[in-house]
Amino acid sequence: MEHKKNQLKIFCDNVKYLRKANGISAREMCRILKISAHSLKSLESGEVPPKMSVSVVLRLADYFDRKPFQLFSPLEPEKMED
User: Fold this and answer.
1) Model confidence pLDDT, tens digit, residues 46-72
2) Residue 1 confidence (pLDDT)
3) Domain coordinates in residue numbering, the chain
4) pTM of the predicted model as reported, rounded to 2 decimal places
5) Which of 44, 48, 54, 79 could, after both became Cys, cross-link 16 (CB 3.0–4.6 A)?
6) Rg of the chain over CA atoms, in angstroms?
7) Sequence-ordered list of residues with C-beta below 8 angstroms from that of 30, at least 6 positions apart, any chain
8) pLDDT tens figures, 12-53
9) Are 29 and 40 in contact (CB under 8 A)?
10) Closest CA to 76 of 2, 4, 5, 22
11) Which of these CATH numbers, 3.90.180.10, 3.30.360.10, 1.10.260.40, 1.20.1200.10, describes 2-80?
């Protein structure tokens, strides 16, 4: 169970990292992912909203040209070195 929680935390960190690294506003990221501002804030704070759909993962992967599984591994360069 701990491994699953860790992967979800990494996913949340990656949402925030990809948005900021690509200069995307929170409003634009909500449009891309088709989620509310509240849901994005929760994600970027490390919490996956209870009714979050897997389609969010797929939209994020598609928009940033990643494979969905890559979003569950650290993307930030400094976190990859840890």
Assistant:
1) 999 888 999 999 999 999 999 999 999
2) 66
3) 2-80
4) 0.85
5) 44
6) 12
7) 36, 37, 39, 40
8) 999 999 999 999 999 999 999 999 999 999 999 999 988 899
9) yes
10) 22
11) 1.10.260.40
* Nearest Cα to Cα of residue 32 among 76, 3, 62: 62
Run of H or E residues at 54: helix 54-63
How many whole angstroms separate alpha carbon 69 and alpha carbon 12?
13
* Cβ–Cβ under 8 Å, residues 17 and 77: no
**82: pLDDT strictly greater than 90:** no
DSSP tag of 50: T
* Residue 76: HSE in the Cβ half-sphere, 13 Å Cα cutoff: 14
Place of tokens 């860790």: 6
Confidence of residue 4 (pLDDT cuts 50, 70, 90): confident
